[in-house]
TrEMBL record:
It comes from Pseudomonas prosekii. InterPro entries: Cro/C1-type_HTH (IPR001387), Lambda_DNA-bd_dom_sf (IPR010982). It holds the Pfam family HTH_3. This is Transcriptional regulator. Coiled coil: none annotated. SMART domains: HTH_XRE. Residues 11-64 form the HTH cro/C1-type domain. GO terms for molecular function: DNA binding.
Length: 153
């Protein structure tokens, strides 16, 4: 479900409550973009939401809580309590979270690494390359390639 309408309503509400014009809250976000948000012609990014919240002297979490509350027709306090309950159920309520995603290994590299480990385990037990081919069912070329070299090296 689109959050454009409640987003626009909250943006207008906070701006009007503080007696600010679109121009006055425009900083890193252009006034024309603020206008497009309020008239449902565009959708805000996370960064734009953060900039607008700052210009409106609230935290982004406060702004977005109000958007969700408007969308669900619930009190902001109820939305926050529900969010806290979810965080506790996920065992994340008291965690310090990473601010950047970790570098993920592509699936094919992970699969090659698993093959390499299996080959190395048999190699350390004294198996020959031919025996490893028979034992693991890998092709001769795969065993030869991974016999000495770790994948990606």
């Amino acid at each position: 479900m689109s959050l454009r309408r409640p987003y626009a309503a909250v943006l207008q509400l906070l701006r009007n409550r503080q007696g600010l014009s679109q121009q006055e809250i425009a900083g890193k976000v252009a006034q024309s973009h603020v206008s497009q948000l309020e008239t449902l012609k565009t959708t805000a990014t996370v960064d734009v939401t953060n900039e607008l919240a700052s210009a409106l002297n609230v935290k982004a979490i406060t702004f977005f809580t109000l958007v969700i509350a408007a969308n669900e027709q619930r009190a902001p306090r109820d939305v926050l309590l529900s969010a806290l309950a979810e965080l506790e159920a996920l065992k994340l309520a008291d965690e310090i979270l990473p601010e950047q995603p970790r570098q993920l290994e592509p699936p094919r590299v992970a699969a090659a690494r698993e093959k390499w480990l299996a080959i190395q385990a048999l190699k350390s037990k004294g198996y020959s390359q031919s025996q490893v081919v028979l034992e693991l069912g890998y092709s001769k070329a795969t065993v030869w390639r991974l016999w000495s070299n770790e994948p990606g090296v």
